[in-house]
Design a protein that fits this description.
Length: 302
């Protein structure tokens, strides 16, 4: 349990100042936060050359039909939305349920509700949309929801994140915990909000991602099979000009898993691609998605 009194030492004061600033920003109207984020993101896009180049390279690989100008504009907007999402994190963590209800709308939520009504265990397939955290937040008010997190060395940050993400019923599972714990939670009827679309290193299988071989985690089909769960794609959209967020939930994948790990992993990527194409600028392109290459292949990053 998170106890603020455990973190009164001066070494935590700078962190508390940062969290306090986020809390204050969260009180601003969302259109004002969006305006500030757009300005901050434009500046970061100019200053962070290495991350800018990663985003530009990723977009060029995944959207070869786009012009250089289109790629540049999409990457810049991506940075602006990352900055906006960072500044609005305090809304995720501290806004009242009533305010969140006003700001977040759902499309296709009936697919999720029908799966629950039919007694299915559920895995929500969530790509790294920039605002992905908002997608599960309100759903966890209705039904305890599992998410995974990466432990960091900053103990205060870990405790804050766990406390705030779990404030409505979120169940956080550390990535290095035994999988049996996660599977037990899924089989107990807790929906699992799963983000499997980053570079998997030597733990992955190579399947196409926007036409380029990418090391991809093959776990979705295993989780679905062992957890006896249906898989519903979910993507969180940031609405223009600080109007809020729209969470889109698609119908369950049919005939999944198929029994062929590689086929299922490739299909997962195809589903993720389809979601990204609806709003390419809202995907987390600053990650080195193609960092791990097949044997004999050159690096795609400078």
């Amino acid at each position: 349990m998170f106890t603020p009194g455990d973190y009164l030492h001066p070494r935590y004061w700078l962190s508390w100042l940062g969290f306090g600033l986020l809390r204050l920003i969260s009180l601003l109207p969302l259109p004002v936060i969006a305006m500030l984020g757009t300005g901050l993101g434009s500046l970061v896009f100019i200053l962070m050359k290495s991350r800018r180049n990663i985003a530009l390279q990723n977009l060029a690989i995944c959207f070869p039909d786009k012009s250089d100008q289109q790629i540049y504009a999409t990457a810049k907007r991506c940075f602006q939305l990352i900055a906006t999402t960072t500044l609005s994190m305090g809304i995720n963590w501290w806004a009242s349920p009533a305010r969140l209800q006003r700001l977040v709308s759902y499309e296709g939520k009936s697919h999720y509700e029908e799966a629950i009504a039919q007694g299915h265990n559920i895995i929500l397939l969530a790509p790294h949309a920039i605002a992905l955290e908002m997608g599960a937040l309100l759903l966890s008010r209705e039904r305890s929801m599992i998410t995974m997190y990466q432990h960091t060395r900053k103990k205060l940050l870990n405790d804050i994140v766990k406390d705030r993400r779990g404030r409505f019923g979120g169940i956080l599972v550390e990535r290095r915990e035994p999988l049996r714990s996660l599977l037990k939670l899924i089989r107990s009827g807790n929906p699992f909000y799963y983000l499997p679309d980053q570079d998997a290193g030597d733990k992955g299988v190579f399947v196409p991602f926007f036409g380029t071989e990418a090391s991809t985690y093959p776990m979705l089909s295993k989780f679905a099979k062992i957890g006896n769960a249906v898989v519903l794609p979910i993507y969180t959209h940031i609405l223009p000009n600080g109007a809020g967020w729209r969470v889109v939930i698609d119908k369950p994948l049919e005939h999944y898993p198929s029994g062929d790990e590689t086929v299922d992993t490739r299909r997962m990527n195809e589903v993720i691609e389809a979601m990204i194409k609806t709003a390419p600028e809202q995907y987390f392109w600053v990650h080195k998605r193609f960092k791990t290459r097949p044997a004999g292949s050159d690096s795609v990053y400078d």
